[in-house]
Amino acid sequence: MARLLATIEHAVKKPIWDCRMCGQCVLHATGLTCPMTCPKSLRNGPCGGVREDGGCEVDPTMTCVWLKAYDRSEKMPGSWREEFDDLRPPVDNRLQGTSSWANLLSGRDKAVPAGWLPDEPSHGG
Ligand code: SF4
Question: Which residues are in the Methylene-tetrahydrofolate reductase C-terminal-like domain (predicted)?
Fold first, then answer.
């Protein structure tokens, strides 16, 4: 069932958002711009390498994904606009290829690395 859901999700989202099946969809918080299309796969951006013309430092032929995400998020309604400003946790590569819909339903997409949440005890000493 999970495999079928992933297949359907990919078929729907690939043509529209160039979805890379990260398994933790944040499209609603990025102005419907897939952050995994950033050559650095940044979940928070932009990085410091944006060119003066808005081009990506890795691939100058493309506009910075995060500049597009910002512009688009300005047009999003309510909380979707506000969520652009949230700090997103690093992507969990163990979910690569799985359905973000299934992970949303199970809550698996909300699991974050140890030490990520501000009220967790520090392990760094
Ligand atoms: S954030 Fe992940 S699930 Fe969402 S469109 Fe991008 S790759 Fe696909």
Answer: 5-78
